[in-house]
Structure of Tryptophan halogenase family protein:
Amino acid sequence: MIKSVLIVGGGSAGWITANMLNADMKRANLPVQITLIESPDIPTIGVGEATVPSIRRTMTGIGLSEQDLMQSAEATFKTLIRFINWNKGEAYDHPFDRRPRPGSEQLARQWSARNGKRFDQTVSVLSQIADENLAPKTPQTPQYQANFPYAYHLDAIKLANRLSDFGRERGIQHVQAKIEAVSVQPDGQIASVTTDQGETYSADLFVDCTGFRSVLLGDALNVGLKTYSDYLLCDRAVTMRVPYDVYKPEQIVTYTRSIARDAGWQWDINLQTRRGLGYVYSSAFLSDDEAEAQLRASEGPHTKDIPANRIKFASTKRHVSWKKNCVAIGLSDGFLEPLESSGLYMIEYGAQMLGLMLQDFAHAPDATIRNFNRNMDDLYEEVLSFINLHYVISNRRDTPFWRAATADSAIWSGLKEKLEIWQNRPPHDMDMHGPQRLFALDSFEFILHGMKYVAPDHGLTPTMPDHTEILKKCRTHLPKHEVFLDLLARASRAMA
Ligand SMILES: Cc1cc2nc3c(=O)[nH]c(=O)nc-3n(C[C@H](O)[C@H](O)[C@H](O)COP(=O)(O)OP(=O)(O)OC[C@H]3O[C@@H](n4cnc5c(N)ncnc54)[C@H](O)[C@@H]3O)c2cc1C
């Protein structure tokens, strides 16, 4: 029986994992003491502003109300990613829709990129709803439930802070100290960790949420990294926060903008009181100074007094996520790249598995570890395949970066054969990798058709769905995004 879990690290990974485990154990009536140790002097990475819809299920499980989440993390709605300049030609969307209405499955199979209409706008109404800046739900829709699929843009630091308060109120023990030493037994198990204040802590299971430092799994247990940098070339980001009192766009939009640039791509995320901007680029093709200059130039002179944050990362994953009595969740285990907002999902998925497998570990440790590691490897491969797709099928060849990113050698082996097949017929469920945890066929279709990669299914004439009625209803019932946010702020003030 596992009675104690010690989590090291208090970023999004640490606090999401701590709260999910705590809620799971309480639901199962299992007396497991959860302790989280974080260094007050080592900052969290401070990015991770775009989420995917699973975050709603995660927060429901934790027990944090939607109003609380949205107010404390300055969240806005996110219904899709808009890809701009990824291909010569028009922009396209990756909405969160999954085959919403009967007939769309057949349509997706029969779709011809040459019939002149955009696939995303034909299959889904979300692009239109986003263009009209409507919220995906009404204030009366029950919390976390949806009229249309949605996630959030949020302030990751504020979310972690709120989850810290929330978790401590519910019994998570919190220690602010830096881990300076890790004691490993001869059999390879972690015995204890010692802080800079001289305190020693032991536990039945240790969770490494120390970010890229990977203090427990990487440093203490010597688990190395496998790299995906041949397929995902970006390894740097420069980010900036632009408050609305410095510059406010016309609308607070419900989509992430992903704009392809000469040596990578740039995000633009709208929160309640500011925008988050970031240029993700390859250091082989652009210097850090030049990247920052380009980010500032793309935004305008009002960024002159706004500080920029430079981040180094690598597309890597630990050889195993769980070894002996230590499991890594979050950046300590790995990271691919932020293009499809998969980082927080990996944490949710790892923490959910851990909640399920915690007691398995007590009686079948080796099988549990293999099970966890296999599932996490599969998820990484699924996400790698999907992100790699965005780059390799681009028809851009205009800069050295784009020539390298679209080279044959940059296509991940797990994707290569599928791309050969999809040149001749549209993708099918049976082509997909494994159980499709995050990116199912629908997501692949939005990218493949958006980039006009897929060959038409000759001889078939798709029946186009008509969105007129549903859009009429949306315009009548759904509030504008900013009206929704306003009502939310007022309700929160009234409750305070
Ligand atoms: C450029 C970029 C953009 C991203 N954008 C997104 C996005 O849009 N959406 C998304 O889902 N994900 C995104 N991610 C991923 C996301 O940021 C991370 O998955 C998430 O923030 C989790 O980070 P973490 O908690 O693992 O690490 P961190 O935030 O780095 O936290 C590490 C914690 O460990 C503590 N620590 C470290 N060493 C010690 C020690 N010795 N003793 C005690 N404590 C210690 C630190 O104090 C800190 O609390 C992005 C990542 C990058 C690099």
